[in-house]
Design brief:
Tyrosyl-Transfer RNA Synthetase, mainly alpha, binds tryptophan
Length: 339
């Protein structure tokens, strides 16, 4: 019997290089899901324009950075389909059609929209309001069943479900109602102990050199109550030990460091030096792979375009079914030649 794998669709906006928080919270999970699911990984460059349309010069560079980080972290273009959103015009086309099924009031109630409007110094655009409709199109275009995301994305997955449901009821049932797969990894603290986030300046990047990594680790926030290396220290909630638990495979060694830290017999500097060494060891194969891939930008982009081409053959089929269902029967698969 042939086992049919469930289809996953998920992605990132190419907002810059990926950091350690992305790696432990997301990319490691995605890489593992490739063993059990039919995975589509989307670089959502159109979505970047919903807020950053005034900085078009950053998008292509950031897309390449994200792609390098994904591949280095184990996303495998042979087993999974990598999609560049803007290379598959059906994303925008399906979003336009699905937009007919959502009220403007519903989109205004979307909590991420409200947050963005508060933060932005811009008049919110129609594009920003429609952000989750485009995201629904991303998923439904490939009839994605499972969407691994962080908690902040749940309102968008809920809206995608509503749209799929509405479409299926009104016309015919072609779309699965996608389910969110919530990441269970706790959020990684950044070097300042806030959540690691690109906009906080507290990240350790996958592309950082060992020297940069060490420098960042040496400046990390630790136990603020500890003034001297002989003071008894706190291990609980201390980012140094959160990191050691993740990146030092020697559990006994970590236990020993914790005991000595609590007893005041090891200083922060020594723990940090050890952590930097462990982190650099952990990241070293990933960095080697990244450096190797970065040598041939053409091959890298070919990979993305190959994936997008494969994706497009599915996308155009789904768009055809959608258009037909919505009464646009005269133009399905009969587009007027460009010239
Ligand atoms: N909105 C997602 C984010 O900011 C990115 C994204 C775009 C996405 N399209 C998607 C995620 C489809 C999952 C499925 O992280």
């Amino acid at each position: 019997m042939v086992e049919i794998k469930k289809r996953i669709l998920t992605g990132h906006r190419p907002t810059g290089p990926r950091h350690l928080g992305h790696l432990v919270g997301t990319l490691t999970t995605w890489a593992a899901l490739q063993n059990t699911h039919d995975c589509f990984f989307l670089i959502a460059d159109l979505h970047v324009l919903t807020t950053d349309y005034q900085h078009p010069q950053q998008i292509s560079g950031n897309t390449q950075e994200v792609l390098l980080d994904w591949l280095a972290a184990g996303i495998d273009p042979k087993r999974s389909t990598l999609v560049l959103q803007s290379a598959v015009p059906e994303h925008a086309q399906l979003a336009l059609l699905l937009g007919m099924l959502v009220s403007e009031a519903r989109l205004r109630r979307n909590p991420t929209y409200k947050d963005q409007v508060k933060q932005l110094n811009l008049q919110p655009s129609l594009g920003l309001l429609g952000y989750p409709v485009l995201q629904a199109a991303d998923i439904l275009l490939y009839k994605g069943q499972i969407v691994p995301v962080g908690e902040d994305q749940l309102p968008h997955i809920e809206l995608a479900r509503e749209i799929a449901h509405r479409f299926n009821q009104l016309y015919r049932p072609i779309f699965p109602e996608p389910e969110a797969l919530l990441s269970t990894a706790p959020r990684l603290p950044g070097t300042d102990n806030r959540t690691m986030h690109s906009s906080y300046g507290n990240t350790i990047l996958l592309r950082d050199t060992p020297e940069e990594t060490t420098r960042k680790v040496m400046s990390m926030y630790t136990d603020p109550t500890r003034i001297h290396p002989t003071d008894p220290g706190h291990v609980e909630g201390n980012p140094l030990f959160i990191y050691l638990d993740l990146f030092d495979p020697d559990v006994e060694q970590v236990k020993d460091f914790k005991a000595r830290y609590q007893a005041g017999t090891v200083g922060d500097v020594v723990v940090k030096q050890h952590l930097a060494a462990m982190l650099n060891r952990y990241l070293s194969p990933l960095r080697e792979k990244r450096a190797e891939l970065a040598k041939d930008k053409d091959a890298l982009l070919d990979m993305l375009h190959d994936g997008s081409r494969r994706a497009r053959s599915i996308a155009s089929q789904t768009l055809g079914e959608t258009m037909e269902s919505m009464g646009l029967t005269l133009s399905v698969n009969k587009s007027v030649p460009a010239r």
